[in-house]
Write a structure and sequence with these properties.
The protein has about 400 residues and is of the alpha/beta class. Helix content is about 40%, strand content about 15%. The protein has twelve helices and 13 strands. The strands form three sheets. An eight-stranded mixed beta sheet has the order 2-9-8-7-6-3-4-5, with helices on both faces. Strands 10-13-12 form a three-stranded antiparallel beta sheet. α3 runs parallel beside α9 and α4 packs across α8. The termini are far apart.
Length: about 400
């Protein structure tokens, strides 16, 4: 077969590789502690699902037909109202484009802005989808180390040292996947200022903007609508990852070009999901967040305490937001003469605990594990961390 050489830019996700092993074990009847998949562990609002089901039966054609590539007007208006409410910045529907999940938002954003040779600054470690897409499109990734000793925030000096007119974009995932880090407001201001000074974009991935346990989210777009592209999703706080619904908030001129490009990545976002997302924003969001965020906070606290108890040599930053913890197991892995990638497979096959190797997210993630506390309840979290510690002994 004459396969594209450029397809080698996509190595395959380490997360999906682990999940395939988990599925095999569970099919054979083995109980696996699921700390690997970055999705909510609670179902969507039951009331929303009941309303959606009734509406789908009432309007099957409307809920199944093509829509504009940018999404139905009602949803874009609802997103604009919601974003205005939480950010404090007036956003209109012209600043919004609806996508098939944040994955399409990422792909179409880079298709819109990247030319051959453009540089993109990416923190290391961070979410693993960005680099392959940039490489495929002919861009060049410049990695800046996120420093564990600074709570996984990069240093101002390191960022300034790599800025130039060749830089087209800076990517900031906030709250972060995998580290759980929340960027300081001063860092966000610096990133926006640098993007403005160098005529670049700050691509601001806000997937976990409502899942805060300490403090509140800083909206980068309030510092510059022209230089910030905010990426969002319905996969996290509404717990609808399989519905594939996301959106971009940016300057109207960018959105116009983005909409033209995304016609070639997907004709339109999934129509049923758009109506479900509209219902969430209009009728259920506040109530659902008030019910679910305290549960995730309790699970986060349980995992943090269990790591401190069962893995006392571990360095771990307590997350202020998001769904992840990123413990540093270097002392344990050194004694076992192994690395995080090999240990993850041993951990899964022998101890039935599913995690993701930190090295999948960059050099800075070596000797770490990405653990999510979202799916398992408190008792299972303690049992799973205890099993992890036994696998290291």
């Amino acid at each position: 077969m004459r396969i594209s050489i450029k397809s080698n830019a996509f190595p395959g996700s380490a997360i999906r590789g682990v999940n395939e092993e988990v599925v095999k074990l569970e099919r054979s009847g083995i109980r696996v502690y699921s700390f690997h998949i970055g999705q909510p562990g609670l179902p969507p609002s039951r009331e929303l699902l009941l309303e959606f089901t009734n509406k789908l039966l009432e309007k099957p054609f409307e809920y199944s037909m093509y829509t504009p590539s940018s999404g139905i007007n009602e949803l874009r208006e609802a997103i604009a109202e919601d974003y205005t409410k939480y950010s404090g910045i007036k956003i209109s529907s012209g600043n919004v484009s609806v996508t098939a999940g944040s994955a399409e938002a990422i792909l179409a954003t880079f298709m819109t802005i990247i030319d051959n040779g453009d540089e993109v600054i990416l923190f290391d470690p961070t979410y693993l989808m960005y680099e392959p897409v940039i490489n495929y499109l002919g861009g060049r990734v410049i990695r800046v180390r996120a420093r564990e000793e600074l709570g996984w925030e990069p240093s101002e000096e390191d960022i300034k040292a790599v800025m130039s007119r060749r830089v087209k974009a800076i990517i900031a995932v906030n709250p972060d996947n995998p580290t759980g880090r929340v960027l300081s407001e001063s860092m966000i201001k610096l990133l926006v200022d640098l993007a403005r000074d160098y005529d670049a974009f700050l691509i601001y991935d806000e997937a976990y903007r409502h899942l805060y346990y300490d403090g509140s989210h800083t909206y980068a777009i309030k510092y510059s609508l022209e230089n910030v592209i905010a990426l969002n999703t319905f996969s996290k706080d509404p717990a609808m990852p399989g519905w594939r619904l996301g959106y971009v908030v940016a300057h109207e001129e960018f959105i116009k070009i983005f909409n033209r490009v995304k016609q070639y990545t997907n004709l339109n976002p999934p129509t049923p999901a758009q109506y479900a997302g509209l219902m969430y924003l209009k009728n259920y969001k506040e109530k659902y967040l008030s019910e679910t965020v305290p549960i995730y906070k309790s699970r986060m606290e349980t995992m943090y305490k269990a790591i401190r108890e069962y893995l006392p040599e571990t360095i771990v930053v307590k997350p202020r937001a998001g769904l992840f913890m990123f413990p540093n197991l270097e002392p344990y892995l050194r004694r076992l003469n192994t690395n995080d990638a090999d240990f993850v497979m041993k951990l899964l096959r022998q101890c039935h605990v599913a995690a993701v190797p930190g090295s999948a997210f960059g050099e800075g993630g070596k000797n770490h594990l990405r653990l999510t506390f979202a799916k398992e309840n408190e008792e299972a979290i303690r049992e799973g961390i205890r099993a992890l510690s036994q696998c290291l002994s």
